[in-house]
Every structure is written in structure tokens, then in C-alpha cells.
Amino acid sequence: MKSLRKYIDKKKPLFQSGGKFAKLGSTFGAIETFLFTPNHTSKSGVHIHDAIDLKRTMTVVILALVPSILFGSWNIGYQHGLAYGIERGIVENFIFGFLKLLPIIVVSYGVGLGIEFIAAQIRGHEVNEGFLVTGILIPLILPVNIPLWMVALAVAFAVIFGKEIFGGTGYNIMNVALIARAFLFFAYPSRMSGDAVWVYDLPNKVPVDGFTGATPLAQAAQGAASKMASVHDMFLGFIPGSIGETSTLAILIGAAILIFTGIGSWKIMLSVVMGTLAIGFLCNLFPLNDYMAVPAYYHLVMGGFAFGTVFMATDPVTASHTEKGKWIYGFMIGALVVMIRIFNPAYPEGMMLAILLMNVWAPLIDYFVVESHIKRRMKRANLKANT
């Protein structure tokens, strides 16, 4: 590594101001930052300095995503085997699934990073590492049968209109990965819903008798709650669904990593669960339809709830930043998830929309929290002044 460091330092002047390749300075800087920790720190506007930086944060999040990636790859092969009566071992299922997931990841990173590099060159800014996480999140929240050209289109839309148009990493008002999913859901709904999209190659072949690609959410929305998979299977992830969202257990391992390292907010995660259970139990008391009668805790292991709670709701850019605001923000996401699932039968998965809606409201929540603190302190100051 020392020889590589020396080589980069030798070539660095060529990419700096006045150098032969100065216009490619952003690209060179991105490669250097990817290989080594930056050798400069912020000089103003920062009150606290520590050892964590954006690259380390992104690295920890990717590490937390590894269990979901591994299980999602295996589940692709497992669900395909169930559909067509093919028996495979654990390794065979994983290899089969990973080879289906890999092209989606490559397209996501290729398109997203390409746009990031172009935008950095145009602005003359450094390339930020934010898309390192977004690039892997997008494939994990998509069905395995999604065409690659749709992935490319969704990533381009999300990066350009969801982030770069606002100024790049740290300035986006909504989660970029969820914008990509929302774009696909509303632009190509037949590719994002229905029983045929969750199991690889299901639209092109006839499955074995009795097999269905319906997810538990779809069964609940159709009034077939009695046919839903068991809580055990939903928790472990032996069900059809988006690539990285099926196993609550794998996601909880990632949650533990994020909480232990301080990257993810446990307050947001817990408050999302509290909001979901509160509205879910309320619906159980007054079950006006079959979906309202589904036990409240089922919502915690159905659809993209766990994945959204751990990796999307806690996005440090788009979530609330005040301590009290985090509780309100998370609780409202949990409450909205249940209400969207129950009262909108055409859209049984409510996590995406709930998070995007609360992304928009997060700044306002923080504003009122800060204003309430200011008013309380003003009252204390006035009381002391009058005594």
C-alpha cells in the first residue's frame, strides 16, 4: 500500500490546479478517497471533530447490509427452486441467486456513479461517497424480475432529480433509493407488483401445482390472511418479496451493527415499531375488514417494514435530527405504514410512501421542536429576570 500511496502522491500534481489533467481533479480525488482516508480536515463551521467521516459511515452501512445481501441471494435461488420443483443445496441456491442479483447491482452502481462523476466534474466539486450505499440499497428493494433498463432509468431519475438537482449528497430532501423505487412503482406498476415479479423467471414458465408467488402483504390485501405464511417463515425470510427485504432476522443483524457503531438511530427504529403497533392494535379492536384483523405484530415482519425501518427511516440526511423530533418522526412513519396498508387495498406495501411523506415533514418537525425549546428557555429567562 505504501508504494501505491507514493505513486498517487507522484501523480497528484497533474490533477491539481494548473496541472495537465486539472479538469479531471474530481475523478482523481474520488479514486484517492476510495483507496485512502483523506489527508485533510474541515477548517470552519464544525464544532466537533472525530475519527468518523462519510467513507467510514458508508462502509459501516454496507457491512450492515451484508446479511440481507447474502440471504437475499440465497432466497432468490430457494424461491425459484420451490416454483419449479428444483432441489438445490444452500451453496447452489446462493450462487444461483447472486448471479441474478449481480447484474442489477452493476447497473445501479454504473449508472449512479457515472452521473455522480459527471456532476462533480461539471461543478468542480469532489465526488462524495454517498452513492456507495444508495447503489446497493436500490437493488435490494426491487423484485428480482425487474428489467435492467428499468433499473438504469430509475437510478438516473433518482440521482438527478432526487439528489443532484438539490446540490448533491447531504442536500436531498427525500431518500434517493426510495425515489428510485417510487419512480418504478408509478411508472411501471406491473413490474413492481403482482405475484409474478417476486420469483425469478416466474412470468415465463409454469410453476409446479400449488405454488404461488404472492407475498404475505398481497394475501392480506386480498382478504386471504388465512393463507399467509407463518410468522416464523416471515421472520426468517422464506417468502417471496423484494430481494433484500424478506428476512427480518438478517435485517436485525444489520440493525445491531448500526446501533452499536452509532450510525443508525435506535430512537427512530424503536419509535417506528411503536407507531406501527399502536395503530395496529387499534385496528385489531375495531376490525372493519380482514386486513384490520391481521395481528398488529404481523406488520413488523411483512413487506419492507423491517428494511425500511433500519436502513431508510434512519437516513441521517432525510430524517429528523432533534432528539424529540426523532421520536415523532419515527412514530408517524409507523402509524402511516399501517393506515396506508389497511385503507389503500391497491397499495398494500405502505413503508415506501410513509417514509417519503415523513422525509418531507422532518424539517418542519425539527423546526417546531427547536422553537418549543427556545420558548421554554425564554420563559425561564423572563421568570429569573422578574424575580
Would you kindly provide a written description of the structure presented here, covering whatever features stand out?
- It is a single chain.
- The chain has helices spanning 2-15, 25-35, 54-84, 90-123, 131-140, 148-162, 176-187, 216-221, 231-236, 248-261, 266-285, 305-312, 323-343, 351-386.
- The mean pLDDT is 85.
- Helix content is 61%, strand content 0%.
- Helix 11 (266-285) runs parallel beside helix 13 (323-343).
- With 387 residues, it is mostly helical.
- The chain contains 14 helices and no strands.
- It folds into two domains: 11-35 and 56-207, no CATH class; 215-381, no CATH class.
Write a brief structural summary:
By secondary structure, the chain is an all-alpha fold. It has 14 helices and no strands.
